[in-house]
Amino acid sequence: MLRLIHTADWQIGKPYGRVADGQKRFRLQQERLAAIGRIREAVERQQAELVLVAGDLFDSPTPAAAAVLEVLELIGAMAVPVLVIPGNHDHGAPGTLWHRDDLQRHQRQLAPNLQLLLERQPLVLEQAVVLPCPLLRNQDSSDPCQWLQGLDWSSLPAELPRIVLAHGGVHGFGGRDYDDEAQAGASNRIDLAALPPGPLDYIALGDWHNLKQVSAQAWYPGTPEPDRFDQGEDNQRGQVLLVELERGAPPRGHPPAHWPHPLAQPARALQRRRRSRPPGPPDRGAHRRPGGPGPAATGGERQPQPGGPSPLPPADQRPGAAAAAAAPQRRLPAGAAGA
Question: What gap in Å lies between CA 106 and CA 267, rounded to an integer?
């Protein structure tokens, strides 16, 4: 049985331009970095074998070099493979961060366990088959998962769980701060009904910043670090998801009665302790409802140190980094996927 962590929408490097106080902006940005350390702790505590980041790791396709290096160091401290697809904020168009030579050089040194998935083709790991649906531009009228409709499913290993990794809105789902774009022909829309349920075991989504189940197999994990107030009765963020998978079986979590299981404290529980927080932009500025309630920013109850994340040892000295980088994997031939 595969145990994995599903997360998304870290949006590292978010500028918080509407927060006037520079020190508060710094604290908010550092708390986003600190959330990666908490994800690493969750991986260790839950003995997860894999981390999936379903888009928007960065807030921009051209983040500051310092932020990129800090992220690589923090990911490199995780002793498991970390698979990432670009989202709409950090899309994978030519000329963006993901294609830069310096990123690839630093990634090999600092985070050999990080694997960026820029191609829409199956990735076969020792533990699972991952079907990435990266966003290769900020806005695209086509469904990023459309390539799966032409996939030769018989070419995939029959015994491994199959995971779709995608970023975008889904048909038929509306929510606060989501309705306008979701119902107005927004880009990057995913048609879950067009995906065959039998061949798939889990659909790991990103883009919606609250914990949300949108089908029997598909979940949004919410953002791991919230920075605005409650979005409604079902508001739940400030967590990642622990998921257990077997081929052909429903996804499971811990405890089963409350699946999926948030590993970090939900945002709702933090509301009682928010007495004074710096104002900030909406959690999802691209999907903010015009005229909606004013935003409020928070760093949660965990205060970062002024110097930011603690220095990490060199990549070759981090426990498990080399083993994670050497995890067996293979790409299927290009002919295995349809157009």
Answer: 34
Do the beta carbons of residue 258 and residue 239 sit within 8 Å? no
Alpha-carbon distance of 96 to 88, in angstroms, equals 12
CA-based nearest residue to 160, from 122, 216, 192: 122
* CA separation for the pair 207, 97 (Å, rounded): 19
Cβ neighbours, 10 Å, residue 80: 23
Distance CA 33, CA 57 (A): 11
Q: What percent of the chain has pLDDT over 70?
A: 66
How far is Cα 25 from Cα 48, in angstroms, rounded to an integer? 33
Dihedral pair phi/psi, residue 267, rounded to 5°: -60, -35
**CA 59-60-63 angle, 5° bins:** 100
Max Cα distance, the chain (Å):
57
**Alpha helices of the chain — where are they, by DSSP H?**
22-46, 65-76, 101-110, 179-182, 267-270, 321-325
Q: For residue 116, give both structure tokens.
A: 């960026």
3-class secondary structure per residue, 280-302: CCCCCHHHCCCCCCCCCCCCCCC
Both structure tokens of 272: 């009682």
- Cβ atoms 251, 277 nearer than 8 A: no
Q: Which of 106, 54, 111, 104 is nearest to 80 (CA)?
A: 111
Q: For the segment 96-117, what is each residue's pLDDT rounded down to a tens digit? A: 999 999 899 999 999 999 999 9
Q: Which of 211, 207, 182 is nearest to 91 (CA)?
A: 207
Buried b (16+ CB within 10 A) or exposed e, 89-103: bbbbeeebbbeeeeb
| DSSP letters for 238-254 | S--EEEEE-TTS--B-S
Per the confidence metrics, is the pTM higher than 0.85?
A: no
